[in-house]
Amino acid sequence: ESGAGKTESVKLLMSHLAQIEHTRPSLNSCGTKEETSLGVSETVKRILDSNPLFESFGNAKTQRNNNSSRFGRLTQLHFDVEDPESTRDSDREVPICSLVGSSCTTYLIEKNRVVSHNKGERTYHIFYQLLAAPDQFKEEVWDGLKHATTDDFKYLSSSDYSLKEHEMDAKEWCLLQESMKIFELEGESLKTILRALCIILQLGNLTFEERCVEQTESSGGSIISSRDELESLSHLIGIDSEKLEISMTTRVMRTSNDECFVKLCPSAAKGGCDALAKEIYANVFDCLVAKINKHTKTSSTEEQLQHQGAENLHLDASKLKQVNVLDIFGFESFKINGFEQLCINYVNEKLQNKYVSDNFMIIQKEYLEEGIPMFDLSLVDNSDILKVIETRGGIFSYLSEECLLTTGNDRAFVYKAKSKLFNSSTLIKKKLHKPTEFGIHHFAGPVTYDADKFVERNRDKLPEDIIDCTRLSTNQLLRDHFQTMFTSLDEVTSSGLKKRTALLTGQTVLNKLRSQLKSLMESIDETRTRYVRCLKPNERMLPRLTDHVMMMRQLEYSGLVTAIAISRETFPSKLSHDLVRRRFECLLTGVISSRVLLRLEHPITSKKLTEKILQKLFCSVKEALSGKGNDNPYICGKTRAYFRPGALEFLEQKREKFVSSFAVR
Q1: Among 34-43, 203-212, 497-506, whose mean pLDDT is lowest?
Q2: Which residue has the higher pLDDT, 30 or 53?
Q3: Three-state SS annotation for 30-47
């Protein structure tokens, strides 16, 4: 769940992994091994100091977590490992390892939080930290920040902001400044980023009203009524106020021979304004990630080699080893669940499915090949849920269909999904649901979603007129990004219908997310995976307090209880039939041995021979294991013998005792 401690666990894990950099074995004057401290390299320091930046720009306060990650992050730690030959020559059991770089891939930053959040929550920490900065610095960034509070900005004013939070934000700002210096985010480059944040805040202060008939010869449309706020934005973004207003209140409809201007109603104009704010923040976040990756990437400089004392190490990228650490948003279920919650819970379904596949599906496949009775995976297998969500004819496909239609809307999407998936037990259909509501029985529990603005958020399309206008900004960060977007729009417009449809489909949030998840799963498949389950001790977010009922509920819906039950049904230890014969035939009493058995029943299969040997050996063992509830301590497959917990250990102890009796004393 959100708030269970995943981000903190990742920070601790990365800190421990970085300790590999601090010491390496050497020989002292007496010829004995000792640890020599190497200190912390600049690369390692940057990797660890990137966390405050990620948390400020990517975390926010939610109903269940004061520091909730609103994005996913895969951190790839690159280690340079000493070659085995050098390790042997130096009489070391463990090779020298050095952390030489890292790279981060992020997933699904929650853009909508910039413009809207639930009561009792906040938008991203960085906005509050900026307001808590010293007035002199704020005035250097933008004079509109001096003495400003959260009440001065509509995107922030809905937060219940306390004095205690303000003091905490001031402390976090000081820590953030230190981190930003490490990544060379200071001076004008820093102010450019912070001014982009101010532009976002100022966009939120614009109000739109219907245009009065007396104001113009033609009726309809909208105007920006907050003229002072518009002038402040114009000065801040470096674009003429009239151009800004036209780009937000009108749309240009182009045909092959002509173009016409369509006036927007206030709500549509406000929607475009919010879309611009979200796009700017996503760009700021992406630039920040790129900056961090640039300063933590693997370096092959002589200075780094000298610092690490790594004469036998090779900074060859193709030979580097990796430890990947994934910090992903937890399962969410609120009073009102929107598009972001569906995306987040879908990611959790994929990870749960991967966990089941890695831990149980492989074993189940092996048992099937060996002819061993199967165990029931239905309680932890969520394949049916994913089928309803992501496959052709599933929820995502119907949402994508609506996004391609000019008249596509949220009600039509929900109606289509409920009609087509009427017989599915995964989809929740209630008579009391609103026309835009539907529910899903997730592995972690049922969740009701309100599909209001699902189509709009999945399209994630910024109006071309706003892109064309914003690329004229004097803010370099905005100018470069929106110029690139405008160039891409030209390519889409000049493409044929088939190619244009493919391009537009690929640009939806869900398709981007699914593409990223596919890449993530492929990356996980290439590694030896370890899963860390984080459990939330209580709902009150208090230390040293454990709600046992809540903990048990998490253990159940995460599948851990079922997984343990299945583990008790499985046979964790296995040996080939030939190895069983060679290792344990010495324990057979009297004249009974595998050779005798071979002569008595010839020809005899390897499986039958193993069964006869184990049958003799486990006559007494069954009694010893009866207290553990294991009626059958072993089972023989086509090529291997499988043992329940404790069974193989019992045989090994018997064998060790037997062999020891022949030892010379």
Answers
A1: 497-506
A2: 53
A3: CCCEEEEECCCCHHHHHH
Chain mean position to CA 367: 32
Q: How far apart are CA 473 and CA 98, in angstroms?
A: 44
**pLDDT exceeds 70 at position 497:** no
Residue 204 confidence (pLDDT) above 80: yes
Give the separation between CA 318 and CA 299, rounded to whole angstroms.
13
Q: 6-18 and 51-58 helices cross at what angle (nearest 10)?
A: 160
The CATH class of 571-660 is alpha beta
DSSP state of 224: E
Locate 473 and state its tokens. 């900004």
**Topology given in CATH for the domain delimited by 6-173+290-327:** Kinesin (3.40.850)
Q: Any bridge partners for residue 579, and if so which?
A: none
This prediction has a pTM of 0.86
What's the angle, vertex CA 402, arms to CA 397 and CA 406, rounded to 5?
Answer: 150
| CATH number among 3.30.390.30, 3.30.70.1660, 1.20.58.530, 3.30.420.40, domain 333-462+495-570 | 1.20.58.530
418 — phi, psi (to 5°)? Answer: -65, -35
Average pLDDT over residues 262-276: 95
Cβ atoms of 324 and 523 within 8 Å: the answer is yes
| pLDDT for the residue 29 | 45
Percent of the chain predicted with pLDDT > 90: 59
**Is there a contact between 229 and 176 (Cβ–Cβ < 8 Å)?**
no
Domain regions of the chain by residue span = 6-173+290-327, 333-462+495-570, 571-660
Residue type at 406 in one-letter notation: T
Q: How far apart are CA 301 and CA 292, in angstroms?
A: 18
Over residues 80-111, the pLDDT tens digits come to 888 888 888 888 777 888 888 999 999 999 99
Strand-pair partners of 628:
none
pLDDT band at 648 (very low <50, low <70, confident <90, very high): very high
Tens digits of per-residue pLDDT, 399-440? Answer: 999 999 989 999 999 999 999 999 999 999 898 899 999 999
Length of the chain, please? Answer: 665
Choose among 460, 124, 540, 18: nearest CA to 272: 460
- Whether 305 shows a pLDDT value over 60: the answer reads no
CA distance 144 to 232: 8
CA separation for the pair 534, 522 (Å, rounded): 24
Who contacts 485 (Cβ-Cβ below 8 Å, separation ≥6)? Answer: 462, 467, 471
Instruction: For residues 630 and 644, give the distance between their C-alpha atoms in angstroms, rounded to a whole number.
Output: 8
**What SS3 state is found at 327?**
strand
